[in-house]
Amino acid sequence: MRIAIVTETFLPSTDGIVTRLINAIRYMKQQGHDILVIAPDLGKVNYLDAKIAGIRSINLPFYKSRGFSLPSANVKKILENFKPDVVHAVNPLLLAASGVKYAKKLGIPLIASYHTNIPKYLRYYNFHGLAESLLWAYILHQHKQSLINLCTSNSIKEELEAHNIPNLHVLKRGVDTINRHPRFYDADMRSRLLHGNNDKHLLIFVGRLAAEKEIHKIKPLLKARDDISLAIIGDGPEREKLEKEFQGTHTVFTGFLHGEELSKAYASADAFIFPSVTETLGLVILEAMSSGLPVIAAESGPTLEQVKHMENGLIFQNEDLKSMENAVKLLDDKELLQTMKKNARREAEQISWDKASQQLLDFYYKTVYIHNFNCI
């Protein structure tokens, strides 16, 4: 099968969408499929022999830390030359909206997926009310043109259905249980993340440092609990602001870590803390669990599908410092901590990228079948 993936984000960017896509491409290339990725031009020209057709990127004024590509007529020419059997529009908003437009114009079977809760993100960038309503109308317009629409959790599926988006299915979760594993525990890495405060509990956050991640909500916990140290792993538009905000607390900013360094960072912490309530899934939760970490997370629908309170993690009420403190206090129970660690790893072991990627491939075949059936 010839598969064209049109996406708003790809390598060398690091995020949950990219993680899902590179694992799907790896799996599908192993199955003998021919894949083309159309993405913002960030200097990468191929991945595992899958060609990346780069479209000129720009920095948006309210999000300057990464490149985005606007809708482009070049997508039509690229699709005409590649002649795909199916087009997958990933988060069709800017560039991927061109994937929707030209797949329809060229009569190519179209599937789309929703990974990012952009309407909720607007609230963190001073867009409100009417802007959110208009965005939902635009999202509906894009996804109504797709034969199949995919999303990442049951909670998000319900939200999308409430906005009349049709033909919805939930993607399976995936995680790399080999490279995210408790065996990567490293005393030197732990000491580095603790900045020498080796007597403290070590919490880590991994992800993009952006307003919607709500990392600032962790600071009051550090003020209230002097025995807690935090390592923030990642980068993004809010980094400088957060570094100033967390001055005077036991916090280390590492920037992005990759490969074995990131595996060591996960496995060397005591727990993973996740304050965001805007995620459509949160793949870093699964990476933490695969590394044997209990997850301390703010309550939200997608998070509750993964984190079970006092089984593989701890749930606190959003915007409630006392609730967060009470959750973290449970880490002092050594027996409970070890039980949650084991359960977290056990949960991750039920999940694989191969299973998730095969499901996605099955959806591609189904999209082609529906398209051909409708053409009879």
- CATH architectural grouping of the largest domain: 3-Layer(aba) Sandwich
Mean pLDDT: 96
| Beta-strand share of residues | 15-25%
- From the helix content, strand content and strand pairing, which structural class follows? alpha/beta
The largest sheet has its strands arranged as 3-4-2-1-7-8-9-10
Q: How much is the radius of gyration in Å?
A: 21 Å
Query: What is the molecular shape?
Result: globular
Helix content: 40-55%
How is the CATH topology of the largest domain named? Rossmann fold
CATH class category of the largest domain? Alpha Beta
Number of domains: 2
Descriptive notes:
By secondary structure, the chain is α/β, with parallel strands linked by helices. The protein has two domains: 2-174 and 352-374, 3-Layer(aba) Sandwich (Rossmann fold), CATH 3.40.50.2000; 182-348, 3-Layer(aba) Sandwich (Rossmann fold). The protein has helices at 16-30, 74-82, 95-106, 118-121, 130-144, 154-162, 187-194, 219-224, 239-245, 259-267, 283-290, 301-304, 321-329, 334-348, 353-374, and strands at residues 2-7, 34-40, 46-47, 50-55, 58-60, 63-68, 86-90, 110-114, 148-151, 168-170, 201-206, 228-233, 251-255, 271-274, 295-298, 313-316. It has an eight-stranded mixed beta sheet with strand order 3-4-2-1-7-8-9-10, sandwiched between helices. A six-stranded parallel beta sheet has the order 13-12-11-14-15-16, sandwiched between helices. Helix 1 (16-30) packs across helix 15, helix 2 crosses helix 3 (95-106) and helix 11 packs across helix 14 (334-348). The longest helix is centred in the last third of the chain and has 22 residues, at 353-374. The two termini are 21 Å apart. The model has no long low-confidence stretch (mean pLDDT 96). It comes from Clostridium pasteurianum BC1. This is Glycosyltransferase. GO terms for molecular function: glycosyltransferase activity.
